[in-house]
Amino acid sequence: MNARAADEAARSGSAAEGTPEPAPTPVTGPRLVAEPRTDGVDAAVAAARRLVTALLRAGDGTGADMTEIAARLDAVTGRLTEKAPTVPERLAEMWRGEGVTRHDPVTGPENAIAPPLVLHGREDRSIEGVVTLDLPYQGPPGHVHGGVSALLLDHTLGVANHWAGTSGMTAELTLRYLRPTPLFEPLTVTGRQVSVDGSRIRTVGEITAGGRVCVTAEGLFVNKQLPRPS
Amino acid sequence: MNARAADEAARSGSAAEGTPEPAPTPVTGPRLVAEPRTDGVDAAVAAARRLVTALLRAGDGTGADMTEIAARLDAVTGRLTEKAPTVPERLAEMWRGEGVTRHDPVTGPENAIAPPLVLHGREDRSIEGVVTLDLPYQGPPGHVHGGVSALLLDHTLGVANHWAGTSGMTAELTLRYLRPTPLFEPLTVTGRQVSVDGSRIRTVGEITAGGRVCVTAEGLFVNKQLPRPS
Questions:
Q1: Residue A147, domain member (yes or no)
Q2: ipTM for the whole complex
């Protein structure tokens, strides 16, 4: 999808946000990302995500009353803040149980920063997700920000470790940018654990567009976790 | 600021979003990030940023009518979309002139994904910014996502190149994670161009919290740019 097609899709209401592709046939193994719900906070977050994209697509030349829009949004924020738990309570709630996170900035259905990327396990022990990114993720003209590619890949390598059965925290990550990564086109993000040697885990991944590799990642992870808050 | 202090600040309305610190004494040189405006789209984006944080802080247990909130947000999105330029028009507008970008996901005042990080040039040719991150940027419990650190550093290294006078695109980026990077505390993000050898630019940077280095970055950039759309 080029910029013009993206524009038409937005006007028809079909792709004002990063668009997850249909899931491939599932493979047996742990669930890799939280299942988005059509109601509750996930619904409001999905709407917030559409809003973030719409603001960037609109810019300052539309004549829309942005001060009034800001006031409307702040009214919603005020209502949410009034009813919110304290941050320590919320952290404890977020990290309860052993399931996948719902809050993270890559796959999290409760995080409007997340495109979101939906990752699936494959039979060869690698994982994969397809995502189309819009203007919020732009770096160079019409292309994905290099740091956004790093964000997607760091997270995907972490999830690939989970899929392979030995997780850890990132110790070192090397990204190589082979060609610009396009906005408005489906990107395939993959990850695969290569080796576990004592506490050292090596994992690789890449982002491809139209079958061509745009960015590769090599990660070294160490097999430890921060304690979950209680 | 720990999680409890962050919570109190949010309730008093003072820090529901990433909080840029006061600017240090300016040093002569090119402006490094766009100046945020208090009206226009920047005001609506700042409100959207507060909303993204409030949704994550609220979660699903507040009893707020999230379906109604989603409908309110979609009404705003609908109005913006109606008045928006086409994507090709918007891209041309975004990239007009030679100034700093307003759209990027790290410093951009028009991008609700950006914390935003405000960067300043220093006399030793390095650059620096201070930012406090909230729940949208969480990876491990109570800490910054490793990919978010990569995003901040990739961008900061690029801006350090601009400050030094020779810019380029990221070819390779290596991140080393020395200790977990805390949420809710001021983080100092720095970048410095180390060398220019033909078209190859080497640049380094780091994120510190309370004077201790959390993440380092080494980047190789090549002195070329993608064409700006017209």
A1: yes
A2: 0.90
